[in-house]
Amino acid sequence: MTDIKKIPTKKSIFSGYLWFFVYLLVALACINLVFATPTVAAETPISEKSRVSHSSGKMLGAEASADSKAVKAKNTATNKPRGAKTASAGLTALNSHVALYDFAIFDASTELARDIDGDGYFREFTLVFDADVQSGVAEVYAEIYLSRDGGPWLHHFTTDVFTIVGDSSEDQYEVNSTLVEGFPSDHYDILIDLYEPGFDEIVATYSSDDNNALYALPLEDASYDAVEVIVVHDDDHGGSFSWGLLLAGAALLAVRRKMSAVLG
């Protein structure tokens, strides 16, 4: 009697290769879709409500109040283009005899914080600037604007009214910002417009044209600053299944970030 031996087949390896090519084809199709239609995505208008940030400010030498110890959990950016603001109410007695040309911004510095995914783009920044008046004491406030990669200046934050004394460096103002939504990974410039309360004329301007500390800051909002973990469960489908899933996952992640940046 002839013995019949069953030869085991390597179905798991074949299945692994099949899954590899399926995920690879899906990833390549998505990449082709993104790069084939950049013009349509670029035409998407920027909504004034599409950018959200939480900011707070205080005099650097002053005691922090309970409200200024933490960044306010509300959107402080109107996103209006520069030049669209209206005069603040209330001409102060302190400023009634100060000429508009007597003001200047002497210096500014920035500090970046919180890069969770380690891609070199940060979700938080601190701006410190020193406003001066030629002589005496005056009250001022500032409008802060951001420009993405040389684009239009959009309003980011309005400071409280604060007091400056001559050319003292003890009256610096600090702004802390957390980017929440609508800030794709990119380089952003900062501009500061200084005003007197009750007037709509700008008394001093300071920007990335004056100081490199305000130029090309690598920023992104919290939605771009997250570490995504891809869990692969290899259930006897061979090593090719794991590699295929990892490759497809990485490709799809890159596609998602590219599409979000183009649409942002």
Account of the protein in words:
About 20% of the residues lie in helices and about 30% in strands. By secondary structure, it is an alpha+beta fold. It folds into two domains: about 10-45 and about 235-264, no CATH class; about 50-220, Immunoglobulin-like (Sandwich). About 30% of the residues are buried. Mean pLDDT is about 75; it is low at about 35-50 and about 65-70.
CATH class of the largest domain: Mainly Beta
CATH architecture of the largest domain: Sandwich
Main sheet properties? 6 strands, antiparallel
Approximate shape: elongated
Query: Strand pairing plus helix content: what structural class?
Result: alpha+beta
Number of domains: 2
Helix fraction, binned, reads 10-25%
Number of strands: 10
- Termini separation comes to 75 Å
Q: Identify the quaternary structure here.
A: single chain
CATH topology of the largest domain: Immunoglobulin-like
Strand content: 25-35%
Q: State mean pLDDT (0 to 100 scale).
A: 76
Q: Summarize the helix and strand pattern as letters.
A: HHEEEEEEEEEEH
Low-confidence stretches: 36-48, 63-72
Taking all Cα atoms into account, the compactness measure Rg is 27 Å
Structure characteristics:
alpha+beta; six-stranded antiparallel sheet; Immunoglobulin-like; 3 helices; 264 residues; elongated; four-stranded antiparallel sheet
Briefly characterize the structure.
This protein is α+β, with helices and mostly antiparallel strands. It is 21% helix and 30% strand.
Topology:
Blueprint: H1 11-36, H2 38-42, E1 52-59, E2 103-113, E3 124-133, E4 137-148, E5 154-158, E6 162-165, E7 173-181, E8 186-195, E9 202-207, E10 217-219, H3 239-263
Antiparallel strand pairs: 1-7, 2-3, 3-7, 4-5, 4-6, 4-8, 8-9, 8-10
Protein name: Choice-of-anchor H family protein
Region (Disordered): 63-84
Organism: Thalassomonas haliotis
